[in-house]
């Protein structure tokens, strides 16, 4: 049963990926319908990106914190000579306004090439159909989990050792042993004089639970002299780092479409920076999936899936060895692996160089992961 006439684009899901696509499509003059069970829900997660990943159309006002050279700790400190940005989550959501979008509140029952079907039977038809609903964090999918506390900058200072931010701090002052599932401290300013201190399981199948991450975080913070009160704002993170299939003819976008980096969990910047390519394809009557997934992007995705399999097998000692070698690479090689979707040669070169410099035990883990 159809209640709306066909539009150029219908988007299922209004998280950052779906909202960005709907916003940019409407700004380009397309007629857009967006469907979400809670379209006005405010985002609460912390989103961040490398500065060079963000599109030029995104204003600086949506950036909450500028970090010129974040640090990482493996066997010792590394400084990453690459600018990092923590986004103002509320500001980003407000900037991606939906005033020119027809927003429909409802639970999505099905998404197919003809449109989006709601739980009550309504169908939202469109020339192009986008599934941007994210991916369920089901046990069989590799996941990233994290437990964090948001504190004032002065309280966080002892955990930072004089650095502006920790992109990854793998020290084992969190009460773990070398054979435990590894986790690291992610510590970055989030604006307004606040810093998030977050114990993070980079990837697991299954990933560490919130209770264990909270325990590790409190042990780590106590070891560094960070005093908490129990009244801090809490952030809990759990999401799948692997995509999910979509129906034939449906455009998967954001995490649903495989745009999340499987070995880091970063997806927002990729969605923001690829939205216009999808919209241009719609305007020209081309296939957006071919635009999103040329041969080079598919090759990069395959290589990064190999990287994910390696990370899933690393214990705490192996993770420290792996990232010690990684952060010793030139920043351009780090960038090739962490960002972008069109440099398969650069990704492969980074992976090969890592393999050559890693200890014998870590090499064995890599070879076992790729069988």
Automatic annotation (TrEMBL):
It comes from the Bacteria. InterPro entries: FAD/NAD-bd_sf. Gene3D superfamilies: FAD/NAD(P)-binding domain. This is Lycopene cyclase. It comes from Rhodococcus pyridinivorans.
């Amino acid at each position: 049963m159809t209640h709306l006439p066909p539009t150029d684009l219908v988007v299922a899901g209004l998280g950052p990926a779906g909202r960005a696509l709907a916003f940019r499509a409407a700004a380009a003059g397309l007629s857009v319908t967006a469907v979400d069970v809670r379209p006005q829900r405010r985002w609460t997660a912390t989103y961040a990106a490398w500065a060079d990943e963000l599109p030029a159309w995104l204003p600086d006002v949506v950036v909450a914190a500028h970090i010129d050279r974040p640090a990482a700790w493996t066997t010792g400190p590394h400084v990453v000579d690459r600018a990092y940005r923590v986004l103002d989550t509320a500001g980003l959501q407000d900037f991606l306004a939906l005033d020119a979008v027809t927003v429909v509140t409802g639970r999505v029952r099905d998404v197919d090439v003809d449109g989006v079907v709601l739980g009550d039977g309504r169908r939202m038809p469109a020339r192009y159909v986008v599934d941007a609903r994210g991916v369920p964090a089901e046990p069989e999918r590799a996941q990233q989990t994290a437990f964090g506390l948001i504190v004032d900058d002065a309280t966080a200072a002892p955990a930072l050792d004089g650095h502006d931010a920790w992109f990854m701090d793998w020290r084992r002052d969190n009460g773990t042993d070398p054979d435990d599932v590894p986790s690291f401290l992610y510590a970055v300013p989030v604006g307004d004089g606040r810093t998030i201190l977050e114990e993070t399981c980079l990837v697991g199948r299954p990933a560490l639970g919130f209770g264990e991450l909270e325990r590790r975080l409190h042990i780590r913070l106590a070891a560094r002299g960070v005093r908490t009160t129990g009244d801090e704002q809490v952030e809990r993170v759990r999401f799948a780092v692997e995509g999910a299939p979509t129906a034939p003819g449906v455009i998967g976008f954001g995490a649903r479409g495989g745009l999340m980096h499987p070995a880091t969990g970063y997806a927002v910047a990729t969605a923001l920076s690829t939205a216009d390519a999808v919209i241009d394809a719609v305007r020209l009557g081309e296939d957006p999936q071919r635009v999103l997934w040329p041969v080079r992007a598919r090759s990069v995705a395959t290589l990064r899936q190999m990287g994910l399999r390696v990370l899933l097998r690393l214990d705490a000692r192996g993770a420290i060895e792996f990232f010690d070698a990684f952060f010793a690479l030139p920043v351009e090689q780090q960038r090739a692996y962490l960002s972008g979707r069109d440099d398969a040669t650069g990704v492969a070169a980074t992976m090969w160089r890592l393999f050559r410099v890693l200890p014998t035990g870590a090499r064995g883990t890599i070879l076992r992961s790729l069988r």
